[in-house]
Amino acid sequence: MNITLLKQHIDSYKQELSKNPEQATEALVERKERCAYYQGWTRERILSMSEEDFLQYMAKLWAMLIWGNKKYVVDKMILDNGFDALRKELADLVWGDAPLSKRWDTFKKSVKGFGPAMMSEILCHAHPDQCMLWNRRAYVGFDYLGIKDLPRYNYQMAGKKYVELSEQAKKIADILKDSGMPEVNLLTVDYLIWDELQVVDNLSKIHEKAATQKSEPPPAIVDKETSTFIHNEIRDKLATIGEWLGFKSKTEIKVADGSHVDTIWEATIGNMGRVIYVFEVQTKGSIDSLIVNLLKALNNPAVQGVVAVSDSTQLEKIRKHAKEVPNLGAKLKCWDYEKVLETHDALEMVNETINSLGLVPQGF
Asked: How many CA atoms does the CB half-sphere of 220 hold within 13 Å?
């Protein structure tokens, strides 16, 4: 970490706060109120919360700003996980007795619909002295300070890595305290990152920089557990991209006996019927199986396109296999999984910005 650079920005941050003491007071009050709210949800309260309580609990998160219709997202979480199981896993994540890294990994494996941004924000609000808030902004800030080995994608954020990053945030908090900042915790660090460390070039060129660095191992050669995480992250982000584009998205959809596809985008055109796009994510496993699933999907006349998603090496193999299959080669589209993740991040930024304007009020 570049301590000299950090101290320069802390000095700048303090100067800005001193120029506007009302804003500084409001920020401190906001931090206290957010922490008090989430700390008030004890293990027992979480286990007994209603679905309406859960909606309010989730809607307050900054990570939910990317969604205009928060109730839709929360209802999907409840449907995908079952509410009893969801409450138990959430209570264990926030208040469990196991080490933080283990609680993180268990929740990540067990619960659908939560990424590191949501998980870390809840933990940061409940335990602001121990847990940092990790999201795209934190990545940019840490990268700017020269902190190494940052997780670029969700599948890279294991519990051990989250604990390591929180330790880095604690170092920043200690320097903030030494500078004379009052009532500092890791949520204060998040405010510093947001206000001072969002360098325009870093934020706008985040993917360009990543492309010039040593790439991650392609999904075809990683271990089984990592392959599963990559597969699930891409599957879920494909669904989210579809929803942001106005489609009705679903994951793990049965297309025929014994065959499921990873993601579909669906739209209804007036009274004319449905239009469906099908996506299959390939990290490990049989290419023949992928092709069979896509062929079965094409038997549905509503399916207008099928897309294979994988790394560049696998996609080349898939194209070669598909050319030999009647009725598939000309219809198959291929999408590199890294481009999917980049597209998701770009749309996330757009939706967060638009929704933060409050142009469309929340419904009942």
From this structure: 13
Contact 333/230 with Cβ under 8 angstroms? no
Query: Within this chain, do residues 70 and 171 fall inside the same structural domain, yes or no?
Result: yes
C-beta neighbour count of 325 within 10 angstroms: 14
CB environment 220-248: b (16+ within 10 A), e (fewer)? bebeeebbebbbbbbbbbbbbbbbbeebe
Residues 165 and 268 in one domain: no
Q: Is residue 357 part of a domain?
A: no
**What is the per-residue pLDDT across 153-183, written as a single tens digit (0 to 9) for each?**
888 899 999 999 999 999 999 999 999 988 8
| The model's pTM | 0.75
* Residues 234 and 159 both lie in one domain: no
Least Cα distance to 5 among 197, 201, 200, 134 occurs for 197
Give residue 286's identity as a one-letter amino acid code: S
Calculate Rg over the CA atoms of the chain: 22
Instruction: State the pLDDT at residue 216.
Output: 47
**Tally of structural domains, the chain:** 2
| 79-108 average pLDDT score | 96
50 phi and psi angles, rounded to 5 deg: -85, 170
Check residues 56 and 210 and name the one with the higher pLDDT.
Answer: 56
**Statement to judge: residues 131 and 160 lie in one domain:** yes
- Order of strands, sheet of 303-310, starting from the edge strand that comes earlier in the sequence: 248-256, 259-269, 273-281, 303-310, 332-336
Cα 61 to chain centroid distance, Å, stands at 13
Read off the pLDDT of each residue in 181-193 and give the average, rounded to a whole number. 92
Rounded to an integer, what distance in angstroms lies between the CA atom of residue 175 and that of residue 282?
45
Q: Is residue 351 part of a domain?
A: no
Contact 78, 86 (CB under 8 A): yes
Residues 199 and 286 in one domain: no
Domain holding 122, by residue range, is: 3-214
Higher pLDDT, 43 or 288: 43
Residue 343 Cα distances to 35, 194, 255, angstroms: 33, 22, 26
